[in-house]
Amino acid sequence: MHTSAANLNTQFGELVFLDRFEAAAQAGFDGVEFLFPYSYPVEQIAHRLCSHGLRLVQYCLPAGDWGGGERGIACHPSRVREFRYGVEEAIRYARPLGVHQLRCLAGLPLPEVAPALARQTLVENLRYAATLLKPHGIALLIGPQDDFITDDEQARAIIRDTGSDNLFLQEHA
C-alpha cells in the first residue's frame, strides 16, 4: 500500500471525478487530495472516502473562478467578504470529511492593486482563516506557486507576519 495520497486532479484523469476514489484505492493509495470539493454534495464525497477506505489529506479553500483563470482571492482587497465566506464553506466540508489541513491559494496579483495592499490583505485573510480553522483542528497551509506567493522565503515571511500558530508552509514532495 502507498503511504502517499493520490492527487485526484492529476491522476486517473480518464475517469469522472467521483470514480477516481475507487481507482485510487485499487491502485493501493490510502489517501487522496484534490483542489476543491465544492461542486459535489459533501455526503457524496464522504461516501466515496468511506466506501473505499480512504482518508482525505487536503483540499483548497474556495479560490474564485478557477475555470475563468483565477487562482485564489486571498490577496484581493475587494473580495475579503467572499474569501471569509469561503473559509466557512470549507469548514462545512472539512468536518464531515475528516480533513485536518486546508490549503489557501493566495491569488494572482492584480495590476490595479498596490503590492503592499495586496500583501496586507493576504496577511489579514490568512490570520482570519487560521484563527477560524484552529478550533476545528484544521491547519492552514500556504506555499509558493504561480500566484502572489512566489517562493518559500516569501511564504515564511507572510506566515510570520500573521502571528498565527495555525498557519504553515506547504511541504513539497
Explain what this protein looks like in three dimensions.
There is one protein chain. The chain has 173 residues and is α/β, with parallel strands linked by helices. The chain folds into two domains: 1-58, no CATH class; 61-173, TIM Barrel. Helices cover 38% and strands 13% of the residues. It has five helices and six strands. Strands 1-2-3-4-5-6 form a six-stranded parallel β-sheet, covered by helices on one side. Helix 5 (152-162) links the parallel strand 5 and strand 6 (167-169). Helix 2 (42-51) runs parallel beside helix 3, helix 3 (80-97) runs parallel beside helix 4 (115-133) and helix 4 (115-133) crosses helix 5 (152-162). The model has no long low-confidence stretch (mean pLDDT 95).
Q: What percentage of amino acids are in beta strands?
A: 5-15%
CATH class of the largest domain reads Alpha Beta
Topology as a string of helices (H) and strands (E): EHEHEHEHEHE
Quaternary organisation of the protein chains: single chain
CATH superfamily of the largest domain: Divalent-metal-dependent TIM barrel enzymes
* Number of beta-strand segments: 6
Contiguous low-pLDDT stretches (5 residues minimum) are none
Task: Write down the overall geometry.
Answer: globular
Tell me what the CATH architecture of the largest domain is. Answer: Alpha-Beta Barrel
Helix content: 25-40%
End-to-end C-alpha gap: 18 Å
CATH topology label of the largest domain: TIM Barrel
Q: Major sheet, described briefly?
A: 6 strands, parallel
User: What is the mean predicted local confidence, pLDDT?
Assistant: 95
How much is the radius of gyration in Å?
A: 16 Å
Structural class: alpha/beta
As laid out across the biggest beta sheet, the strand order is: 1-2-3-4-5-6
- Count of domain modules: 2
Enumerate how many helices there are, as a single number.
5
